Amino acid sequence: MSTVTVAVTSKRLDLEALTAAVASGSGADGAVASFAGLVRQDNLGRRVAYLEYEAYEPLAVRALQRIVDEALAAWPGTRVGVHHRIGRLELGEASIVIVAASAHRADAFAACRYTIERVKQIVPIWKHEHFDGGDVWLEGATADPDDETARRTAYRIACA
Amino acid sequence: MRVTVRLFARLRDLAGSGELVRDVPAASTIDGVWRHLVAEMPALGEYERTMSVALNADYSRMSAMVKEGDEVAFLPPVSGG
Fold first, then answer.
1. What CA–CA distances, in Å, run from A30 to A80, A103, A106, A153, B1?
2. Shortest CB distance from B57 goes to which of A37, A54, A62?
3. Does residue A128 contact residue A80 with C-beta atoms inside 8 Å?
4. Statement: the pTM of the whole predicted model exceeds 0.80
5. What is the pLDDT of residue A40?
6. Are strands A134-137 and A125-131 parallel, antiparallel or unpaired?
7. Per residue in A63-97, pLDDT tens?
8. Do A56 and B8 touch (CB under 8 A)?
9. Going by C-beta distance under 8 Å and a sequence separation of 6 or more, which residues neighbour residue B51?
10. pLDDT for res A25
11. Does B9 touch chain A if contact means CB atoms closer than 8 Å?
């Protein structure tokens, strides 16, 4: 079964399968950069027990696809795959995996970094943190895909 | 006319449900749907300045017109990754 390159799923993430789906394997790529985001036990002084991720799935998939398209436009010839997990995740489990393949390492690293920065800006997914003594919804950025300032910030971080 | 309202994360908790069906006047905007909701549940109002909105699972604006059967979503600031 072939792996789709953009997905929101409640299943455990598989970086190897995503890499195989993104990298050409034909010799055209000279670099593959990958990123995995993990559930961390300490957050803002709280002892995290586990996280629950919630998504507005159809829009989350569209937003992820938009980011992949933005990365291709910014680094032509680079291909990006991204899988985000939802549901309950235990400490140390991967919540997101990103793979960027390109002819050269600079573009692969940049596209990978750009993708995670943009995910945090515009993808409608939320963390519900369960910690020792309570629970809290984490809230980061007000999602606005047309906010050019935010997009440029992600691009600048990616190229730093 | 009837619209489906989707709420997520803390907005969903505040409303007690992630999916509501509401009757709103014809020719309403997303803003009109929001006002209808806040009149019913004032606690949601704190998100007015920080939320995003979507119409039929695409990002939209408060000024967008809604039609019978549309799905309108109100989204707190996101925290994926």
1. 14, 4, 10, 27, 56
2. A62
3. no
4. yes
5. 97
6. antiparallel
7. 999 999 999 999 999 999 999 999 999 999 999 99
8. yes
9. A142, B11, B74, B75, B76, B77
10. 82
11. yes
